[in-house]
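Following up on my earlier thread - several people asked me to post the actual chain instead of describing it. Fair enough. Here it is, all 146 residues.
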Amino acid sequence: MPRQTSFIKPGQLPATWRIVDADGKILGRLATEVATALMGKHRPEYTPNILCGDSIIITNASKIVLTGRKAELKTLRKWSGYPGGLRVRNYETLLRDDPTVMVTEAIIRMLPRGRLGRRIQRNLRVFAGAEHDHQAQTPTPMKTKA
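Reply from S.P.:
Thanks for posting it. Predicted structure:
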């Protein structure tokens, strides 16, 4: 019996699609579970330098819950790179105008930075309503604690 650690290679794991309903879920608690699944840390064959996570679809992002006064106090800052180009929006307006930005940013900021992190980001799809355009992938529901 060989005593060598076996590592997975790119393409060895099957592509799995998961779907999460964000209706009534707390933003941060949902984001941590989704980020963990995107990185693949829930799998026993997790390898930190290989893309081994799932592709995740989040629906009903407009019905996500923010606790406390985060909706009015927490802000998303975006700088164009030019003087006076800082755009600051609080989560209350983000939730009203485009909730997918708020959910996406919360999850992306929990992912690693670098080439692999940018590749992992492509496996995340967020939709404001209950409808999504990935029925062909036959996603399985993801159980969340949040």
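The chain has five helices and six strands. That should answer part of your original question.
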